Amino acid sequence: MAAVAPALGTPEQIAKYEPVIGLEVHVQLGTNTKIFCSCPNEFGSAPNTNVCPVCLGMPGALPVLNHHAVELAIQASYALHCEVRNKSIFARKNYFYPDLPKGYQISQFDKPLSEFGWVDIVLEDGSAKRIGITRIHMEDDAGKNTHDGYKDSDTYSYVDLNRCGSPLTEIVSEPDMRSSEEAFQYLTELKLALQFVGVSSCDMEKGHLRCDANVSVRLKGTEPFGTKVEIKNLNSFRFLRQAIDFEIARQVGVLESGGRILQETRLYNADLGETFGMRSKEQAHDYRYFPEPDLVPLQISEEWKARVKAAMPELPANMRKRFIQDYGLKKYDAEVLTATRAVAEFYEAAAAASGDPKLAANWVTSDLFGLLKADGKEIEESPVTGERLGELVALVAKGELTGKLAKEVLPKMFTTGDSARAIMEREGLKAMNDTGEIERIIDQIVAANPKQVEQYKGGKTTVIGFFVGQVMKASRGQANPATVTEILSKKLA
């Protein structure tokens, strides 16, 4: 008779415990070739085509370290505020699995690439917290087992070794997180920083970012950690939150029913919303680490570190603060405009050319984003450059174009690639600054609508919006709405 799993902890029971969470994040570095050989480091090739004797683990094949992979790993370290060691050592991590043809993984153990970093996060309630990073080390990736998609998948699993030898950094956090929300925000900020620097695309669908969560619980007020359970291969941010929340409830349920937590590796079943046991969890000594005999220690000079650090771009967290402080943007707009490095650089160019950063932010996040979405384009593909959009915004800010006319001009810029001024001159689109002409139009509108005039004079002042709309229509959007409103207020008084 199958054992019945303990019930999950109730909200009241869960409230008695404090979760302790750490994340191990594997990030595939964006190199053209693999870490120890010249095979292509690319996704989507036919199975087992991007392989050679080195990544297949053939006898006598020797690894050669990819310089670019090291450079990207150093950049990742600085993006996460880590201290890069002058000397790090590769080691063999020994274990057997079908997708690991060498029978070991080349990794780093007691002397990793970098240590002692941190990521600052902001929670939904506005509070801030710093999450420590224990270490970042380099390693080669394993292949991939495929358990479905073939006609005989009910009998066989297939192994694709194309991913073997792809360069990875493993980023190990301190056990500083106390909720699934903190884990979510940490992973979000980490991913954004690495994308900004250009270390990796961090595309989870392609396996470029994979996350394991270490979760335990302890009674509030107690110091010792509980028994840690590792949840492997969480491949989406949503599943990360769901898996952690379930695991917390499961562990509390076990403890409250008098059971004990087993140190094990578990997987998350997204269809059921549950974790399930995969295998007992190994200790480090179970991997029989020893120095990789075919690779010399990795020496990173102070000159190399200084050169990488000097070339680092501004990090997104700093950029968000600057946009809020220097440009007066709201927190939400600053977050949207730093969602990717390309968006941030586009906005910076628009803001500089416009002379009005807040107005430029509105045009980027609303009008331009709308056109890009409708056309299925990313901002890197925008036919309108940041400088050109800034020029359009400057024309609005100076009163040479009304907002309504500018909304007509931008789609034409998007279609033709022409500047705003060229389109204005070609089509005769410019703001009407002749107050005499505006008054003439207003007089005609007022005379044609005596009923609305009486309503306004009777106290229904909102009717002025009707008159403004009629004037804007008659002027083809060229009249300045503020000027129209001012003149109407005087004439209707």
Automatic annotation (TrEMBL):
InterPro entries: Asn/Gln-tRNA_amidoTrfase_suB/E, Asn/Gln-tRNA_Trfase_suB/E_cat, Asn/Gln_amidotransferase, Asn/Gln_tRNA_amidoTrase-B-like, GatB, GatB_C_1, GatB_Yqey_C_2, Gln_synth/guanido_kin_cat_dom. Residues 345-492 form the Asn/Gln amidotransferase domain. Its EC number is 6.3.5.-. It is an enzyme of class 6 (ligase). Keywords: ATP-binding, Ligase, Nucleotide-binding, Protein biosynthesis, Transferase. GO terms for biological process: glutaminyl-tRNAGln biosynthesis via transamidation; translation. It comes from the Bacteria. One of its GO terms (molecular function) is glutaminyl-tRNA synthase (glutamine-hydrolyzing) activity. SUPFAM superfamilies: GatB/YqeY motif, Glutamine synthetase/guanido kinase. It catalyses: L-glutamyl-tRNA(Gln) + L-glutamine + ATP + H2O = L-glutaminyl-tRNA(Gln) + L-glutamate + ADP + phosphate + H(+); L-aspartyl-tRNA(Asn) + L-glutamine + ATP + H2O = L-asparaginyl-tRNA(Asn) + L-glutamate + ADP + phosphate + 2 H(+). Pfam families: GatB_N (PF02934), GatB_Yqey (PF02637). Heterotrimer of A, B and C subunits. Belongs to the GatB/GatE family. GatB subfamily. Allows the formation of correctly charged Asn-tRNA(Asn) or Gln-tRNA(Gln) through the transamidation of misacylated Asp-tRNA(Asn) or Glu-tRNA(Gln) in organisms which lack either or both of asparaginyl-tRNA or glutaminyl-tRNA synthetases. The reaction takes place in the presence of glutamine and ATP through an activated phospho-Asp-tRNA(Asn) or phospho-Glu-tRNA(Gln). This is Aspartyl/glutamyl-tRNA(Asn/Gln) amidotransferase subunit B. It comes from Paludibaculum fermentans. The gene is gatB.
